[in-house]
Amino acid sequence: MTATNLLQTGQIGPSAAEQGRPFRVYTQRDLDRITAIHHLPSDQRFAMKVVSTVLPFRVNEYVIEQLIDWANVPHDPIFQLTFPQAGMLTPEHYAQVADLLRHDAGKAELDAVVARIRETLNPHPAGQRELNIPRLPNGEVVTGIQHKYRETVLFFPSQGQTCHAYCSFCFRWAQFIGDKALRIATNEAQDLHAYLRQHRCVTDLLVTGGDPMVMKARHLEAYLEPLLGRDFDHVQTIRIGTKALTFWPYRFTSDPDSDALLALLERLVAAGKHVALMAHFNHWRELDTEVCERAVERIRATGAEIRTQGPLLAHINDDPDAWAALWRRQVQLGIIPYYMFVERDTGAHHYFKVPLVRAWEIYREGIQQVSGLARTARGPSMSAGPGKVEITGVAELAGEKVFVLRFLQARNPDWVHRPFFAQFDPEATWLDDLRPAFGEPEFFFESEYRERWTGVLH
3-class DSSP state for residue 442? Predict the structure, then answer.
């Protein structure tokens, strides 16, 4: 039975508890209105204000009421995932902002300090502005698109450049701070469609954000429905990146246009497109509500699949048992584990980072606990400038302890799955921290990377 049939019969319609549930959101200016944090120490609540002056903060009542275990705060993983913590700024930056807030500094002075701090936080990691945004033959920049890998184009619709709540670790935090110079977005559907027509090598479109699932179904339809035309037969897969299954699963069950959204997914599938929701999950608790299960059921009834990914994060999921539980639960619900990422070197990276050797150990110990169906999760993977680099393991070769690495995806497809080796470094947390093993002057890809991708990607 199709999703449309199920919707018409009411078999997967919203439950009575879901009907008409309002979406209530809180940002920094609303911190004092969040009753759940009133019992926290005053210095902790002040720290939230300090950190959220620099890094974006947004949470909603569903997260507060159904996901956070307030008896376990501040250690609760979902609390760490969504609420600002003092350690998310360096002591120096924290002191600067805290001092200005305590002395009621003027807006101009505060904004200037915050802007300087943000500049140090690597707002666009892995060269995503300099290297990924394409240009037309006349040199004109194609706004709202990134094209890093040959087969895959990322599209940033302007209506989808926020989220139902913000992750405290988000590597796209610069999209949410109101600085148009840092924001990647467009509402020009024709530019996307023209670019796809011109690039027949593209098989996959990834609609991303922010979160495209904050968009009205009619806006998403305007971007995606034209892809059913014959001009776009080469675009075989439509991916939609989303955290909505965690932060607002009602998007798929009881929002006013939930049925229209699911009907769109079903039409895309029926027309022969492979539709995949790239769902971001960081902890098994995110899947532990009835409405989330119901949302997953409704999505899968359309013929779309759900693949999951998320970074390994100190304070949230740096535990192999948590990952094993997450992967097992996903498989139980019919979801496909896809990626474990290394936290990118941006924003509050210093707070969330985990040494690469520990990341590999956590992945290995977690994957050992699950069946083959959950071992589709690849990682730990670094989405670095040259490509997605997987830590395959640690070994001793020719008397030297080394990291064994390979590209899962790369700017040059010829680099993919070529093993290479780095000196073992127990403190390294990112590709840039690693040095070639065996006395080699540089990694095999570095010379070509410098020569071909030092400027704008054409």
Answer: coil
